[in-house]
Amino acid sequence: MARMTTWTISPQAPGSPVAAALWRAYYTEVSDRWYLRYEGRRTDPQELEREIAATTGAELTPPTGRLLVGWYGGTAAGTAGVRLLDTGTAELTRVFVRADLRGRGGAPLLVAAAEEAARALGARRLVLDTRDDLVEARALYARLGYTETAPHNRDPYAEHWFRKELVS
């Protein structure tokens, strides 16, 4: 008989070793994809370390944010974060599942947990941005009911912006 492995999702402090390791994996992947696309190289290791150190994730802590970690069979497998932008709007960020654990249903569960966390923070809508080359992310958001909208920020790497109204 095959053993079922399940996902669990729990809040995590952004500075915890688990969150830091997942942030490193996330940032390395998206940075490398950008540099490979535009410059034909991977991220410079010194630049990677500077950017990781500069982005603490402090905005993903209560009372105005939350970082969630998805665990697959007891292994830290992915993240999703939310942070309030104003009293009714939260931003979805750091949605990531480790490459070796993709295709097992974790990303939709992380997004759903982030939506619930945003509601708990008082948000009525979620917004997010992503890049053109992150086609998997764009497909996920569309599948989960996010609609593409006009820009809501001036992030130099953002090329697509999405929004979803949260219902109780």
UniProtKB/TrEMBL annotation:
Residue ranges of the TM segments: none
SUPFAM superfamilies: Acyl-CoA N-acyltransferases (Nat)
Stored PROSITE patterns: GNAT
Residues in N-acetyltransferase domain copies: 20-167
Keyword tags: Acyltransferase, Transferase
A single GO molecular function term of this UniProt record: acyltransferase activity, transferring groups other than amino-acyl groups
Claim: Repressor is one of the keywords in the record: no
One family name in Pfam for this protein: Acetyltransf_1
Protein name: GNAT family N-acetyltransferase
The species this protein was found in: Streptomyces misionensis
